[in-house]
Amino acid sequence: MRFTGIGLFLLLATVAGKLARAADETENTRFCVAIVTDGKPTNADVNNAYRMLSRVVMLPGISRPIIYAINRGGTWTIDENRAFSRFGGDFPNNVFFDKYAADPSTGVIAAIGHNGLFTIAPGEIKFRQIASNNGQPLAHPYSIKFIGRWQRFVVADATGLFSWTPSLPLERLESKGPANLLNPFLAIDLPKIGALLVSVQGSMAVLRFDDGRVEKLTDFGKDDFLVDAETSDDGQILIVRSYFATTTYSRSPTGIFEETLAQKGMRNTAANPFEPTDQRGDSRTLHAPVSGHPLTYNRTGLFEMLPDGTKKPFSVPFDPVATPVLDAMEMPASHALILFTSVAAFAADAEGNVKELQSGTKLASVRLPQARGVIPGRNEMLVLGRDALYLIIDKRLAGPRACLG
Question: pTM of this prediction?
Answer without folding.
Answer: 0.86
